[in-house]
Write a structure and sequence with these properties.
single chain; mainly alpha; 4 helices; flat
Length: 136
């Protein structure tokens, strides 16, 4: 980690399990010849996303409380800024890729509401960018 702390192998294992669950879930949807029992098992992959939420809350909370313990206070704007710098570039990159593909496939113009996470609030956007609702 860049802040000088050791990585926790147990958290890495949980992340790996979450990734595997989500990937299994998505891949199995395209293999119609799988037995029903296998499809029932791979539906557990939806819990991989929940596991990511729990891990994210734990990790972000740990960063917050570590800063509070080390400095006696948390510079909230600086704390949020660091979080935004970790997530927003990925969001805007994924948005760019999604919109290029939507433009090529459907010719739809870009709606600037997506820049401010409009898909969370506006149901009238032409392309529901649901994959990133949770990221934003």
């Amino acid at each position: 980690m860049s802040n000088g702390t050791r990585r926790d192998a147990n958290l890495d294992l949980l992340r790996s399990i979450a990734i595997a669950l989500v990937l299994l879930h998505h891949v199995s949807q395209y293999i119609i010849t799988l037995p029903v029992s296998v499809h029932a098992f791979t539906r557990l992959g939806a819990y991989g996303v929940d596991l990511f939420f729990v891990l994210s809350g734990f990790l972000i909370g740990s960063l917050y409380f570590r800063e509070l313990q080390q400095t006696g206070r948390v510079a909230l704007l600086r704390f949020w800024g660091r979080r935004w710098l970790r997530t927003l570039p990925l969001y805007y990159f994924a948005l760019l890729l999604a919109y290029v593909s939507v433009f090529v496939a459907r010719g739809e113009p870009f709606n600037p509401a997506y820049l401010l996470f409009g898909q969370n609030y506006l149901k009238t956007l032409p392309f529901f960018f649901g994959q990133l609702v949770t990221l934003c």
